[in-house]
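SEVERITY: medium
COMPONENT: batch folding queue
REPORTER: lab tech (J.R.)

DESCRIPTION
The queue accepted two submissions in a row. Attaching both inputs and their returned C-alpha cells so the on-call engineer can compare them side by side.

ATTACHMENT 1
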Amino acid sequence: MLKRPNNPESEEHFDGGENELETSAVGVVSETNSQHPSVADQLDSDLDEEDIEDEDSEDESEDDEDGDEIVWFDRDTKAFLISLGVHVVLLVGLAAFPIYEAVKDSPMLMLSAVPRVEEPEEFRLVDEIAFSEEPTEEIGANSLGNSGMAAALAPTMAEISDIPTPVIERPADFALTDASYQVQQVVGLVQSNQVSKGLTGVGATGTDGAVDRVTYEILQMMEERPTLVVWLFDQSGSLHERKKEIRERFNRIYEELGIVQQTDETLKGKEDDPRLLTSVVAFGDNVNLITPKPLAELGEIQKAIDSIEVDTTGNEKVFTALYLAAEQYKHFRSTRSRKEPERNVMMIVVTDERGDDAEGLESTIKLYRQFAMPVYVIGSPAPFGREFTYIRYIDPDPQFDQTPTWAQVDQGPESIFPERVQIGFDNNYFEEPVIDSGFGPFALSRLCYETGGIYFTVHPNRKYDGRVRESEIGAYASRMEYFFDPERMFQYRPEYISKDEYMQRVAKSPLRQSLIKAAQFARVGDFDPTQLRFIKSDEARFITELTTAQQSAARLEPKLSSLAEILIAGMPAREKESNIRWLAGFDLSVGMTLAHKVRTEGYNAMLAKAKRGMKFEKEKSNTWVLVPDAEISVGSKAEKEAQQARDMLESVVKNHPRTPWALLASRELKQPLGWKWVEEYTDLTPPAAMRNNPNNNNNIPPPPQDDQAAMLAKPPPKRPVPKL
C-alpha cells in the first residue's frame, strides 16, 4: 500500500511527478495514436475510466487521524504487479523446458571402440586330433531353446535368462565382472525372474560344509514357494563314507528347515501340502526311483537312503538318472494350469566320479533349463589335466581285511579335453603327483553352471599351505598332493561351452591348436637316466655301458622333438591370446617340453663324448659320474632352447602364482638342464664277507611257530576291490 506524504512540499513534488508522468504518457499516446488510431482511442478510454474510478475511491475513503489518505492501488503499483506477473510466468515457463547439452565423445574412447580385426591364419593341425579314452559328449548349450520359458519359471537365484555365447575375457575384466555380480547378489539387485549361471569349483573341506550350503539354498527356495528336493545317490562302493555322512546329517538339515517352518508364518503350508517334500533316487548301472512319491517325514526319508545297495558294475549313469528324475518331477514346474509353478524343484547329486554317460549331457541341460530346475553336486575335485586318479579304499565290511589299498576312479579332466602336455611317468601312472585342478569334472560342472546350481569339490584333506602326504589321505578320499584357493582359481575357470563352440575357438587360434594336439600326443616318459656312474676298469666294458645307457635317451629324443615342434608352431599367436588359462597352459607346456628335450639330448651328447675318450686328471680316479649342471656344454642350439625353456617357465611362475601351472613350472626350474662329468675313485676290492663266503649263502631258517598262535594271528579274509 502506498501513502501520500503529509509534508506539503512533498505533495507538491509528488504532484509534479504525476504531472510529468501524465505529460509523458500523453506524448506517448499521441504518438501511438498517430500510428495506430484505434489502439490510441482504446487507450484514452481506458485512462478516462481509471481516472473516474480513482476519483470515486478518493471520495469514499476516510482520512486517518493524521489526515493521510490511504491509496490501495495507483498506476505505479499496478504497473509493478503486472510486470512482476509477466516475469513470473516467463520464468516458470522457461523452467518447465529442460535444456540439453550435447556431450562430445571422448577421443580416447573413439579410438579404442572398434578393435582391429585380423583374419586368423589357416592352421590345419586340429584336424588330426584323436582322443583316446575320452567320453563322447554332445555338448552345446548355445543351441538350446526355450529360454523364455526358463525365465518365467525360474526360482529366486537368477542372473541371465538367455544362454549367451561365452566370451573370452581378459583376467582383469573377468574378475571385475564377477565381483560386480557378487555385490549385486548380496544386496539383492539381481533380478529374480531370470535364470542364473551357477558356480563351479566351490571348495569344501568336508561333506558337512557342502551340506550346510545346500541347506541354505533350500531355505532360499522355500521362501519363494513350496519346494521339492530330489537326492540322487551314486551306488558305487567308493561313495560309502560320503553317503553315511549325509545320512547322519539329515537330522540337522531337516530340523533346521523345520525350525524355520515353525517360526516363520510365511513358510507354513497346508496340512495336506507340506512346504518341503523330498525324493530319493539311486543310480549305478541302472536308475532306481527309491521313493516314487515324494516324502515329508524325516524317518521315511532316512529309511529310503538306508535301503540303497552297492552297485558292483563300476558304471555310474548319472546323466541318465538326472534326465529320468526331471521327467518324473517336471510337472511340479508346469505353468499350463496355474499362474505360477506349484513348487520349486532342485536336484542334489552325491557322487565322487564324472559319470559314464556324458553323451546325455546336452539333452539333460536342455530339459533342466526348460523347467528351471537347478542341479547341485556334492562331488570330488578333478585332477589337473588327468582323466583319473586313485582313492584310498577300505572294505566297508569290517569282517574283511581293513588294510587300505588304492583304487582307480574316473574324476577328470576339468575341461572338455586335457590342456597340458603329458610328460613323465609313462610306465607308472600312480607315481605321478596328482594336483587339484580347482574344479570338478567338466560335464557335471557344466551342468551345474548352466542350470544355476553349484558344484562342490569335497576333499577331507584340503589345505592350501603345503603338500598333503599319502599317509594323511582319509578313507575313500582321492589321492591329491596339492590344493589351490578357489577364489584364486576362479579366473582360470574352464570354458563351459559346447564342444562345437570349443573347437571353433581352437580352430581360430594356432596357439590353442598346438596345445590341444600336444596334450593328446602319446604320453612321453619323463627322462630318467638309467645310469649315471660308469667305472672305467676295462675299456671295452666301459664303452658297452655307455652305449647301453644311450639307448633310453635315443628312444625318448624323437618323441620330445616332435612334441616341441607341435608347440613351437603356436608361438606366433601367443601375443594375440587373451585367455589367461590358455596362456598358462601353453607357456608351461612349451617350457616343460623344451626342458626335457635339452636334458635328454644333453645326456646323450655327454655319453657320446665319453665314448670318444676322456682322461682323468687325478691319479687314483677310475670312475666317471654324470651330474646335473646349470651350464649347457653340448652346442649353441641346446643353449638357445634351454634359455627359452627357462624364460617360459619363469613367466608362468611370475604371471600365474599359486596355481597348478606355477607349481609345475617351479618344480621344473629346480632341475638343472645341463650335465657335467665328475671323476671319482671307486674301491674295486670285494668286501670281506664276499671273500669268506663265495656263494653268498647267508639264509637262516626261521624259528618254529606255534600252530595255535598262528591260527589266532591269522588275518581276516581279503576280497578284491570292486569296480568303482
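ATTACHMENT 2
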Amino acid sequence: MADEHETIIILDFGSQYTQLIARRIREAGVYSEIHAYNTPVEVFKNKNVKGYVLSGGPDSVFEKNAPKGDPRLLSCNVPILGICYGLQWMAQEQGGKVAAAEEHEYGRAHLQRRVKSPLFRGLPDEFSVWMSHGDHVEVPPADYAVIGMTGKTISAIQHRQRPFYGIQFHPEVAHTEHGTQILKNFLFEVCGCCGDWTMGSFADRTVAQIRDRVGAGQAVCALSGGVDSTVAAVLVDRAIGKRLTCIFVDNGLLRKDEYQEVIQRFQDKLHLNVLGIDARADFLSKLEGVCDPEEKRKIIGAEFIRIFERQAKSLGPVEYLVQGTLYPDVIESVSVRGPSAVIKTHHNVGGLPESMHLKLIEPLRELFKDEVRRVAQELGLDPEFIHRQPFPGPGLAVRILGPVSEERLSILRQADKIVEDEIRTAGLYEKIWQSFAILLPVSSVGVMGDGRTYENVVAVRAVHSQDGMTADWVHLPYPLLARISNRIVNEVRGVNRVVYDISSKPPSTIEWE
C-alpha cells in the first residue's frame, strides 16, 4: 500500500506498546508498519525503508526460545532503534553482555545524558523516562558508546560509525519526558525522513490503487453506518463510481430506528447506491441459544458473507467485497505480525469463512481510528459521519451477555437509546469515544410500586480512547448518571437495576464480549 512512501519498519518482539510506537511514528508524519520480529530482511527490499525500530517484549534473551531477529539486519547500514528487549537483542547479537538486573526497574527513572547524540538533540541533560525491564546491558558491544545512564544502569547506547541506537526505556509512552522528541530525532535526524505521510496523500493514493485493482469490475460494500465503512465506501465510490453497490443489512441486532436512518442518510447526503436487506430472521435463528461470544461473532461474520455473496450474484459479475476493517481489528483478531496474543475475533477479520468467494478490498486495514477520521475530513464528510461513535460489527449480540432473543433485544434497544439521548443532551457525545448499555445475564431483587420484583440488570459503559487499543472509563457527572438510571428503570419494562462500569482497557476490553 505504501511502498513508494518512506517507511519505518517496526519489528514486534511482543511488547504491549508496539502499536503505540506505530502511532507515535505516524503522528510525526512518517508511515510505519509492524512485522514479526523474525521477518527476513529481503521481505522489505521493495519498500522505501528509512529505518527499523525493534520493539520491547516480555521475554529474556537468556530463555531457550527467546525471540531473535534476522542477524543480517545488523550488517546493513539502515538506521536501527532498539527499545528495551530490542536493545538487549542488538547488544547480545553484536558481542555485548546482557545480564539479569540485581534490582528490576519498573516505572519512572531519571536519565542522565553522557555524551552528545543526534538521538537526544535539543533535550536537557537530565529527564525522566519510563522503565519496564528485568535484564539490562551490562557491557555494550565494542563499537558502541554509552550515551545515557539511569543510576548505574546503561540506558542508551549508539554505534560509533553506523546509525544504530539502543535505549532501555520506552519513548512511546506519555510517562517518558521528551519521548516524542526522541522518536522524532530518530526519524528526522538519524533516518533523514521528510514526513510525507498525510491523510490527504493516503486518500489520493488509495483511490488510484482501488481503481487500478478493480479495473472495469464491480464491488459490493458492507455498510454499517459507522465512520470506518463510510470512509471505505466513499473511497471506493470515488474510484469506481456506480459500479459499487453498498449493502446495509438489518441483522436484527441494530439499535433503535438505525436501519431506516442509515439508509436515508447515505442516500440523501452521500448519494451512494445503497441496497437494504432485511435478514433479521436469518441471523436470529442462527443465534438462538448461543451464549459463547466467539461463537456469536463467527456466526454473524459468516452470515454476513453469505448475504453479500448472494447479493453479489444477483447484481451480476461482482468480484470484490469492500470492508472497513481497521488496524486494531487485525491486531486483536489474529497474531499475524508478531507474538502478541489474540484478544478476540472481529466479525470482519477472524470471522470470515475460508470458503468465501469474493475478493476483499480493505482500504483502511493499516489505519487507526483517529487516522480514519482525518481521512473523512479530507474527503469532506459531514461531522455526523465523522464523529459517530463506534458500534461493533456483531451489533447488540455482543452487548447482550448470554443468549440473544427478541425480548432481550427490545430491552437493550430501549436502554441504549436512553443512554445515547442523555449523553447527547449533556453535550458529551462527540467528546466520548463510546457510550452504551449492556444487558447482563443476571436478575436482581427490587421494589417497584410496593411490590417485589426480580428483573434484569443493565450496565452503562462510557470510555475515552484515541484508537480503541487502550481506553479509560469516563467520570460522568453524578446528575447525568442519575438521569440515565432513573429513566431506564422507569421507562424500560423488565429492568430494575442500573450499574456503571468503571473498568479501563486493559485489563478489560471496551465491549463486554
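NOTES FROM REPORTER
Residues 101 and 347 are 44 Å apart (CA to CA).
No errors were logged for either attachment.
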